[in-house]
């Protein structure tokens, strides 16, 4: 039994001497931490309403026959609301705001917005209130800024991309940005 105690106790004493004691520097670091953050300060004429930033548009069920017959599905309107629009800049050395441009971007399918999923032979088309068709990554024509609140109206529809049609589910993500001039 004595031998067993020496066999177990001796290594435990040795391990206790090998474990480093807490240093004063480690003690001083307790209670301290770090937060990393990032952001941007931008100079814009308008803010985008919270309800307009992320929208989900249900394109509903469209029979393949409608796409074959009409080349497109039903038009689904959506809008982007701009709020707190001002024409003067905080830096009076810069010219006042007069115009803005909207650019839609996403997966491309030629001049259309591509879709993912089982469905084939279709893409999305976006048009503004004046009938200008959006091309992914290219800005729409300049428009005038108005004071206060502005509602920018658009329409999205499913269109044929002139490839073989196949029924199935699909989805797409389209981003937009506004540039002010």
UniProtKB/TrEMBL annotation:
| Top-level taxonomic group | Bacteria
InterPro entries of this UniProt entry?
Adhesion_dom_fimbrial, Adhesion_dom_fimbrial_sf, Adhesion_dom_sf, Bact_Fimbrial_Adh_Pro
Q: Which GO biological process entries does UniProt record here?
A: cell adhesion involved in single-species biofilm formation
Enumerate the subcellular locations listed in this protein's record, separating them with semicolons. Answer: Fimbrium
- Could you tell me the keywords of this UniProt record? Fimbrium, Signal
Q: An example Gene Ontology cellular component term from the record?
A: pilus
**Limits of the Fimbrial-type adhesion domain:** 36-180
Q: Name one Pfam family in it.
A: Fimbrial
What family is this?
Belongs to the fimbrial protein family.
Name the record gives this protein:
Type 1 fimbrial protein
Name the species this protein comes from. Answer: Serratia inhibens
At the highest ranks, the source species' classification is: Bacteria, Pseudomonadati, Pseudomonadota, Gammaproteobacteria, Enterobacterales
């Amino acid at each position: 039994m004595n031998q067993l105690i020496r066999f177990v106790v001796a290594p435990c004493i040795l391990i206790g001497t090998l474990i480093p004691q807490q240093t004063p520097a480690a003690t001083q670091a307790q209670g301290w931490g770090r937060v990393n953050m990032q952001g941007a300060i931008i100079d814009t004429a308008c803010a985008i309403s919270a309800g307009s930033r992320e929208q989900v548009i249900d394109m509903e069920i469209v029979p393949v026959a409608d796409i074959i017959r009409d080349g497109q599905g039903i038009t689904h309107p959506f809008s982007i609301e701009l709020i707190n629009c001002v024409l003067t800049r905080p830096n009076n050395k810069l010219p006042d705001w007069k115009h803005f441009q909207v650019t839609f971007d996403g997966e491309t399918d030629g001049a259309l917005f591509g879709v993912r999923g089982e469905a084939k032979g279709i893409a999305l088309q976006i048009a503004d209130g004046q009938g200008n068709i959006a091309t992914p990554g290219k800005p729409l024509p300049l428009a005038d800024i108005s004071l206060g609140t502005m509602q920018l109206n658009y329409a999205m529809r499913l269109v044929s991309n002139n490839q073989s049609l196949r029924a199935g589910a699909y989805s797409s993500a389209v981003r937009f940005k506004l540039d002010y001039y």
